[in-house]
Fold this protein.
Amino acid sequence: MTHDDVIAQLRSADPVAGLDLSHLDPGAVRALRQGITMTERDSSSTSRRRRIGRRSTLIAGLSIALVGGGSAYAVHQQWFGGTGDGPNCQSVWNETAAGVAMVSGPNLTGDPVADCDTYRAQAGLPPLSDPVAFEYGDAVFVTPRGQVPEGAELLAVSPTAGAERELRASMRDWVDGGSSHCFSTSEAEEFARAELDRLDLTGWTIVTDDVPDADLLPPGMECAALDMLDPASHTIDVLPLRSEDWERTAGPTTSGIRTALRVGIAHTCVSLGDAQKVAEAALGTEHHWPTTGVPDEEVDCARVDMEVGGSMQITIYGPATARP
């Protein structure tokens, strides 16, 4: 099947047809659209570095439980795009047959097996037996060891996986990180260098893209964007004029949650547990990915990252007891 054939079938299947998206915050939807467009390659130039990371869409006939907001939403289509950014968790490996139960979501901690435990628990499913993580078709899966398909590459959790996960969250963070206000290109580069130093990550490169042609820019793209479009290359991408100023243009829901996280966590000193309560209260019933709490006894106060793109993902790091 050619690439065009696959795209044609995806369009005809329309996996989100019938889903009510009207309740989504406009800023969250625009952030999702912006994230997608940043991964597109310029087909007119063969000299550009490849910019597609693990956001590639998985073409598979699967029954998928989308976990968010404490509930599981089972969706089945003949064609469905699984996540390329985090683990796809299956009790039985079968990438093409419909009816294979799977839960899937974005990277939470940098440990795919631990993340699958979280997703399956929230979906009301039992833990996988003897789970292992592997890469197959540019995406990460977790299945029982006996279900690993031929040709898959087994994955071990890197000692720096947690720091790399925090780096990516910080690049996208709306509270006080890379998406918290309108960065110039030089400010974005400085922020990236500071985060690499803070997280003690070495061997990374900061690459600044060309300034796009003005007539190709959508309205409102005034700020530099930060991302890791190909994490395996240990590269931070600085993308001039690829982002809105989310401080001004965020929708009322995301703006309100961001303010609550700033006031209740970032601008004060609280423990990990208290920060998680702040996040839970701020999110309320809004759709979100599981909030992740990471113990960090080397700091005095909790810190928080809020990533937005269609839905919201909050990660909190901090000590058991705050030390103001």
Remarks:
- Residues 111 and 179 are 24 Å apart (CA to CA).
